[in-house]
Amino acid sequence: MPQKDYVKTARPKPKAKPRASAARRGNSRATSKANRHWLLMLVTAILLSGFAGFLWYLKQQPSAPADTPADVSKSTAAIDDLPVKPVAEPYQYIKELENKEVQVEVDTTEREKQGPFQMQCGSFRQAEQAEAMRAQIAFAGYASAVRRTEGSNGVWYRVVLGPYDSKRQATADRNRLQQQNINGCRIWNWT
User: Is 156 left (phi over 0), alpha (psi -120 to 50) or beta?
Assistant: First the structure.
């Protein structure tokens, strides 16, 4: 069964108003349309005559003289003439730097004091949490170990990476772990 639109059927239709004849109105609508057509034609004629005048003005302007072949050869000759290459180098520092040796003093005692490093990425009360952290580190591509330590405040499970020979290697691994959203790793001296 088709649906009915009860809203439209309930409204009464408006009554049509009687229209006045064109003679009674004074035919003002017909006159205004005729005026609009004449106005449009007048504006179009003015624009076309202005464009034609602009084109005539451009035609009357003297054109730029065309380059003759002699002028072209003079300009290319000026470009081809490069300055004479100097015989001697005016700067002496280039020769001085070629033969210069730089001596750097390396203090090896300071590096020997630092020793190996380890990185601790977590310390947990439960072994399962430590193993979960170790698995995250393994997925990032690094080998880690879980160490059980007993302290004065109970048993702790630490997730440790290393040992590293230099702090720079440990820092590089920590930065790569941070890119994998494993934060909180600390580098310690392993002694």
Answer: beta
Is pTM beyond 0.85? Reply is: no
Site of tokens 């590089």 = 172
How far, in Å, CA of 184 to CA of 74, rounded?
73
* pLDDT tens per residue, range 23-77: 555 555 656 777 788 899 999 999 999 999 999 999 898 876 655 555 555 656 5
CA 23 to each of CA 27, 62, 66, 100: distance values in angstroms, whole numbers, following the listed order: 6, 62, 70, 111
Residues in the chain: 191
CA dist 12 and 155 (Å) reads: 88
Q: Is the peptide bond before 163 cis (omega within 30 degrees of 0)?
A: yes
Domains, in order of start, for the chain: 116-189 (3.30.70.1070)
Spell out a b/e string for 99-115, using b for 16 or more CB atoms within 10 Å of the CB, else e.
Answer: eeeeeeeeeeeeeeeee
Strand partners, 124: 157
